[in-house]
Amino acid sequence: MIKKWWHDKVAYQIYPKSFYDSNGDGIGDIPGIISKLDYLADLGIDILWLSPCYQSPLADQGYDISDYYNIDPRFGTMEDMEQLIAEAKKRNICILMDLVVNHCSDEHEWFQKACQDPEGKYGKYFYLREKKEGKLPTNWRSYFGGPAWDDLPGTDKQYLHVFHKKQPDLNWENPEVREEIYKNINWWLDKGLGGFRIDAISNIKKALPFHDYEPDREDGLCSMDAMLQEAKGIGVFLGEMRDRTFKKYDAFAVGEVFNEKIEELPEFIGDDGYFSSMFDFNETIFGGSEKGWYDTTPITPDDYKKCCFDAQAKVANIGFLSNIIENHDEPRGVSRYIPEGDCCIESKKLLAALNFMLRGLPFIYQGQELGMENVPIASIDEVDDIASHDEYQVALEAGLSPDEALKIVSKYSRDNARTPMQWTDGTNAGFTTGTPWLKVNPNYHSINVAAQIEDADSIYSFYKKLIALRKNPIYKETIVYGALEPVWVEQHNLMAYYRKGEQILLVVGNYQREEQEITLPKAYKDVLLNNYHDIAKENRTIRLHAYQVLVLEMCM
Fold first, then answer.
1. Which residue, of 35, 219, 319, 348, is most buried by count of CB atoms within 10 Å of its CB?
2. What is the 3-state secondary structure (H, E, C) of 218-243?
3. Per the confidence metrics, is the pTM higher than 0.85?
4. How sure is the predictor about 258, in pLDDT bands with cuts at 50, 70 and 90?
């Protein structure tokens, strides 16, 4: 593998609307992020990914962009963004922005012009089809529910939106569209941006010509997955984008990629891949159902272990995955991957270490370093997330009671990750002096930065130790580039693996509340990390406490 500048980095995702509000309007902003850069630098962060803060109507919380060249006034100004890039650079932190180019906003100038003249230049920037009474162009279901087609205002045509109806899909088959996208990417990279997280990129290539697929629900529609499975040739677009943009700047690019084929992985994240890295979603998609969230199979510790190891084996030495426990599109990881009733400091640390020590680039989502949890939801009226509202209706239509449907939404809603960052135990968790745009999780009195930052046994301090271990010059080569070899795979509720390089490191976690034993094949040389203050051992047999996790340097 050709070594790249970003291989040994630690990344952190910020959801700007919920990170820190500097002006008391209840919405997080870029000056707020600037004010917390020292916090991030002290934690050990090298790469900072910002979810969208471009100008947007916020129909899908900024993933509907109306102007790619401007910052939304809710978040600040372009001068604020330039200052953030400069101040981050002083702290050896590079900034990533979200690249959202499968679709734009229906309030974007291009779409407005397409409405005015659908046969003209800008009509070709989108997927437009003649409206036929009583029949859609295709029976594709939008990711947010309902048909993926809507009427083009003021015309006799319909347009494609695989997400929200305010997010019309851009026609990547049109070279003029691609030119505009590359021009914008390079404009931002010229400003000093370190790279991009690339949103929903699997969707840019459609299977042509458009046609229907077998319906998978009673609504007569089909999941977008059916079309994506048939779509061929996305590599032509992705290779062109890489060569015209990221490659010229040695920029970091991480892809949100679904439906990739194993044989294509070298093309996606190999030495000359389309992207520097791509996220591992094995764990987040586990148990998903075409029927909806209500039919999801909950993940167990053994499932989680298998998901992680399958992803690692699939990628092997081809390239680097970006490993996540949670992000802005998922519920909180500790509420999802720790068995119900077992969420505690020890289990949260176990989950952190088992994920962080995997081969690949660790991405921490804001508040993850504190062990932030899902938020209690008393009514669907409290929910902001559009996907959650759709899934609530899907559950009701499937025969669930309102209470049962709300329980499902509470478990999987994206709002769980979008509640304000918990800085203190003061008013609104120290996030804002105003009224927060989304309610604060009531557990902020016990889970917050101020309570954890000086506590050597806190989850925050444990994350700091994990980051310091990854950067330790003695172990860095092994942790970053060493092979990953699972061990004791069949042992129930035990996740363990070696990292083998200049040293042999054993990462082992007892993923349950009951104690269990392991017998080491060799003695260990040193304990590099332990979420308890002791190790119960006799000779080479270790009795692991509830949710105990260890990182051991083994004797060679």
1. 348
2. CCCCECHHHHHHHCCCHHHHHHHHHH
3. yes
4. confident
| Angle subtended by helix axes 175-190 and 234-244, to nearest 10 | 40
pLDDT of residue 532: 98
Q: Which two tokens stand for residue 16?
A: 């700007």
Residue 251: pLDDT above 90? Answer: yes
Q: How far, in Å, CA of 167 to CA of 113, rounded? A: 15
Residue 261 has pLDDT above 90, yes or no: no
Strands (E), 15-161: 47-50, 54-55, 67-71, 94-99, 128-130, 149-151, 157-160
Q: How many CB atoms lie within 10 A of CB 262?
A: 9
- Indicate if the pLDDT at residue 452 is higher than 80: yes
Do residues 515 and 545 lie in contact, with contact meaning Cβ atoms separated by under 8 Å?
yes
Question: Which residue from 145, 196, 213, 215 is spatially nearest to 387, judged by alpha carbons?
Answer: 145
pLDDT confidence of 260, banded at 50, 70, 90?
Answer: confident
Tell me, what's the pLDDT at 237? 98
* Residues that are catalytic: 199, 256
Q: How far apart are CA 181 and CA 173, in angstroms?
A: 13
The two three-digit tokens of residue 446, written as one number: 């016990």
Q: How many helices (H) and strands (E) does the chain have?
A: 20, 21
Query: Residue 146: is it exposed, middle or buried by C-beta count within 10 angstroms (0-12/13-18/19+)?
Result: middle
Distance CA 482, CA 312 (A): 12
Q: In which element (H, E) is residue 465 found?
A: helix 459-471
Contact 121, 186 (CB under 8 A): no
- Report phi then psi at 132, rounded to 5: -120, 125
The answer to whether 202 and 162 are in contact (CB under 8 A) is: no
Query: 343 phi and psi, to 5 degrees?
Result: -70, 115
Q: What is the mean pLDDT of residues 353-366?
A: 98
pLDDT reported for residue 359 = 98
Model confidence pLDDT, tens digit, residues 301-345: 999 999 999 999 999 999 999 999 999 999 999 999 999 999 999
Please state, in angstroms and rounded to a whole number, the distance separating the CA atoms of residues 337 and 325.
9
